[in-house]
Amino acid sequence: MVQSGDDLATSISEALTAEKIKIMDGDVIVVSQKVISKAEGLLVDISTIKPSTKAKLLSKRTRKDSRLIELILRDSPQLIRADRKALIVRRKNGSICLNAGVDKSNVKGRNIYSRLPADADDTADELRLGLEELSGCRLGVIIGDTYSRPFRVGQAEFAIGVSGIEPVIDYRGLKDLYGYKLRFKSVALADEIAAAAELVIGQGAERIPVAIIRGLTRLNPSDKHGLSKKLLLGRRIDLFKDMI
Amino acid sequence: MVQSGDDLATSISEALTAEKIKIMDGDVIVVSQKVISKAEGLLVDISTIKPSTKAKLLSKRTRKDSRLIELILRDSPQLIRADRKALIVRRKNGSICLNAGVDKSNVKGRNIYSRLPADADDTADELRLGLEELSGCRLGVIIGDTYSRPFRVGQAEFAIGVSGIEPVIDYRGLKDLYGYKLRFKSVALADEIAAAAELVIGQGAERIPVAIIRGLTRLNPSDKHGLSKKLLLGRRIDLFKDMI
Fold first, then answer.
1. pLDDT tens for residues A40-68?
2. Which residues fall within 8 angstroms of residue A234, CB to CB, at 6 or more apart?
3. Nearest CA to A162 among A204, A220, A115, A91?
4. For A113, which residue in chain B has the nearest alpha carbon?
């Protein structure tokens, strides 16, 4: 169980040693958002929050606790939908999600909710550098979070923080099996890696917060910062704009 | 290379034997849509197609070949977006996708395009029964296809055909680590399995059309037909309706 202030690189390294698992060059380490939020001390007791007038108003509209709304608003520059069915916002990094990712599951205490890391790419960078130093290997790190999606039933894991690898592979201009030049294809590899990891990590009760993805041949290393932003599609160019 | 009329269960079994891989109980076999379309003879030479007036009209609007449009319309009861940027439709099964899934990549011949299977769940059922008979094991089969998504850059693999396993795990009413009852969580396991398989299968040039997902502990067996429909969210209850 991860506590506030824990150094996750050290905790993960120790857990791997205990399990006799050795990190290898090219491994992608996927970590569930919830343990990141716990390690970064992002659990909030909403009974300590004084809701604003706006939060109180939205509380009536959404039938959610006004203190919870206040907490959500702190992470949400833009409100997109607020009614009895859903509170959907755009977070500072541009991602669109339910309740700004503020979440009750697997958090101890009746009034305690977890917030998302302020910048999950920074968190991923720090964790990668720590794990690379401890292991001597070149790694990728992905922070995964569970998202509801348009069109599809059920939630799926997306990459909300990425470090060390390009999150998208662009196939445009490359040739297919028969020499036909691909015009549209690009693959959200980081989201697929996060989804693959969720198969092992599960939704909490399994107590597995970390998965290692090994043997991927399609990884493109990157030392850039803010890589998860490459996965966010601007509204202007979203083909599904106004379509749902 | 799969040809029209090939029995995929037999082809896959033979390939596994050649690779000395033994199928096991609980394995999920993920097959790429493209080989399904090839085996089912769903490659169409658009130079044999006479476009309708509607197709010709849409051709001007979208700047796509009117014969290609005609082919797309055959699989599309509902047109959702048609302009220079995208042709988005709803297919008979209710799924919303670009170009009705009609696709040029990894198909031989300048004018040859592949259509999606008419009912990918039927295809998955048939393949599962064939593979179960040949292997003596209880299996799951998923047919994966690459989808563009709202909000996110890059495409990701979704499950368009499912047989033998429940595609969604519903956690609602179950308890988390601390006994808190989960109210919203359900996981689109079949989509995550398809995404995990894409990491291995790739986009064609790798010539790997099949992946085996083994050791999943969260599978719920099902003998129902039409399982992929459980992944399709009706517009009425889509939380992101009108939001993009």
1. 999 999 999 999 999 999 999 999 999 99
2. A94
3. A220
4. B180
Kindly report the number of other CB atoms within 10 A of residue B142's CB atom.
Answer: 32
Q: Which stretches of chain B drop beneath a pLDDT of 50?
A: none
Q: Which CATH architecture has domain A1-42+116-231?
A: 2-Layer Sandwich (3.30)
For the domain covering B43-115, report its CATH number. 3.90.1660.10
Instruction: Report the phi/psi class of residue B27: left, alpha or beta, with left for phi > 0 and alpha for psi in -120 to 50.
Output: beta
What's the token pair of residue A31? 């970590």
Q: Specify the pTM.
A: 0.95
Domains B1-38+118-232 and B43-115 share a fold: no
| Residue of chain B with shortest Cα separation from A84 | B239
Q: How far apart are CA A157 and CA A29, in angstroms?
A: 14
- Write the pLDDT tens digit of every residue in B128-145: 999 999 999 999 999 999
The residue ranking higher by pLDDT, B171 or A131, is A131
Kindly state whether B97 is in contact with chain A, defined as any CB-CB distance less than 8 angstroms: no
Across the interface, whether the CB atoms of A187 and B156 are under 8 A apart is answered yes
Is B232 in Cβ contact with A244 (below 8 Å)? no
- State the ipTM, two decimals: 0.94
Partner-chain residue, chosen from A95, A146, A180, that has the shortest CB–CB distance to B105: A180
